[in-house]
Amino acid sequence: MPQHFILCNAVVSDGQNFILENVNIEIENGLIRKITNHNKPINGAIPSYNLRGRLVLPGLLNPHHHLYSALATGLAPIGPTDTFQKILENLWWHLDQTLDEESIYYSALNGLMQSIKYGVTTVFDHHASMKSVSGSLSIIEKVYRELGLKGLLCYEISDRMGMDSVQEQIDENLNFFQSHQTDASLKGLLGMHANFTLSKDSLEKIAQAKPSNLPIHIHCGEAYSDFEYCVENGFAGPVHRLNEFGLLDAQSLLIHCIHLSETDYQILEKVQPIVVSNPESNANNNVGMMNLEKIPNYLLGTDGMTGNILGSMRSHFLLRNGNLQSGLDSLFAKPSRLIQRYFPNAGRLAEGFRADLAVTDYVPVTHVSLENLFYHLVFGIQGKPMFMTIADGKILYENGKITQIDEAAANDAIRNAAHTLHRRYYE
Questions:
Q1: What is the pLDDT of residue 39?
Q2: Do residues 328 and 368 touch, judged by C-beta distance below 8 A?
Q3: Three-state DSSP class for 389?
């Protein structure tokens, strides 16, 4: 693949400040070198791709994924799933105790390949493999490197396997964080499952071990059971409990935030952590919806349901009966700022920044403006795969194919790993 090339004849938007029609994007050595009018002559010696009016967006962010679930399609729960707790016990917790090194690797490979096809170039993963903890994040890291994506990785700490395992899980987070602080593409967070799977002793141990510059990434108030557990233990709610243990700050990633108290909302207003809503997962688990009046500032994640962020936004829009006030902010402005927090020269579709681009397979036939761009995304693109996905100036996906690896061979290996995993799951 060329290191210097030009995307020609595109409609380009950063989703925040501009929409440019009939423009070229010159990419060199991983960076956006120039954005110019298509009518200007180009250097014929530089390879070029005629996009024929396709819409180009910044590479998308998925701020909450569970790559470990990417081989779960077709698995039946081993017991009832009539409550959220039983869904966890009889599907996801059974699955994460079945994962081994091979299935961790191929789950990540399958999940990240899907993400690339939908224009996602940065993924924050929240991992669990309860009987294969140590080194698990390094296995996932290998897949990110092979495919060319950026991301933040963590292990979701839970005390359901005992306190010895809690320490092992803390160590996995800390080791990855400490060894990647200056990494240009991958960094670590402190993963935690949820309040209701973390006892007082566990939270005290986590708080004592946590460096001040290591943010947490945790499911917070996803189901009523999480809220109820916190209240029964003397707290106003899940946000309040995290805050009381000294774990909450403006860099924290709080996932879901559905079942909260007024005290929780007040703390959110004061601390301003990063809130990530996952509408498709919420609907699938029947846990409710986040209060957008109380929490108007949030990002959109998938919680392992899919790698398709634009498709998830379409679902979000429809589940809310079209009543969304900040769809573009959730897709572009807030992700841009968050990506730049960890990777300062990424996250913007602008000259001099890392070339992370989602080239949609959509040619608008009606006028596009910042006022109607969101509707082009929802009703025009309709959650379909990209035409091309570019990360750090490398074309990762083109003409329906992953380019950095042998996709056919990878799919064969993924199928074999899935077959083995499913057999162990039912044993």
A1: 79
A2: no
A3: strand
Query: Alpha helices, DSSP H only, in 272-370?
Result: 279-285, 309-319, 327-328, 334-342
- Long-range contacts formed by 101-105: CB under 8 A, 24+ apart: 101/132, 101/135, 101/136, 101/139, 102/417, 102/420, 103/71, 103/417, 103/418, 103/420, 103/421, 104/68, 104/129, 104/132, 104/136, 104/139, 104/140, 105/139, 105/140, 105/142, 105/143, 105/417
- The counts of H helices and E strands in the chain are 15, 18
Contact yes or no for 197/159 (Cβ under 8 A): yes
* 411 is a domain residue: no
Domain that holds residue 369: 4-59+353-402
Mean pLDDT along residues 333-362: 98
pLDDT at 325 over 90: no
Tell me the average pLDDT across 367-374.
Answer: 96
Are 395 and 139 spatial neighbours (Cβ–Cβ below 8 Å)?
A: no
Q: Residue 332 phi/psi, 5° resolution?
A: -130, -55
Q: What gap in Å lies between CA 263 and CA 335, rounded to an integer?
A: 27
* pLDDT of amino acid 121: 98
Q: How many domains does the chain have?
A: 2
pTM score, whole prediction: 0.97
DSSP 102-153: HHHHHHHHHHHHHHHHTTEEEEEEEE--TTS-TTHHHHHHHHHHHHT-EEEE
87 domain residue, yes or no: yes
pLDDT reading at 42 higher than 90: no
Whether 416 is covered by a domain: the verdict is no
Helix 163-179 and helix 136-147, axial crossing angle in degrees, nearest 10: 40
Residues 173 and 273 placed together within one structural domain of the fold: yes
157 lies in the same domain as 77: yes
Give dist(CA 64, CA 154) in Å, integer.
Answer: 11
List the CATH number of the domain containing 201: 3.20.20.140
Question: Are residues 221 and 334 located together in one domain of the fold?
Answer: yes
Please name which of 336, 405, 406, 390 lies closest in space to residue 146, comparing C-alpha atoms.
Answer: 405
Q: What is the CATH number of the domain that holds 397?
A: 2.30.40.10
Tokens of 28: 């060199």
The answer to whether residue 314 is domain-embedded is: yes
pLDDT at site 349? 98
Q: Are residues 29 and 95 in the same domain?
A: no
Cβ count within 10 A of residue 262:
10
Residue 41 binned pLDDT confidence (cut-offs 50, 70, 90): confident
Tokens linked to 347: 């996250």
Query: Alpha-carbon distance 365 to 167, whole Å?
Result: 56
| Residue 125, phi then psi, degrees to nearest 5 | -105, 140
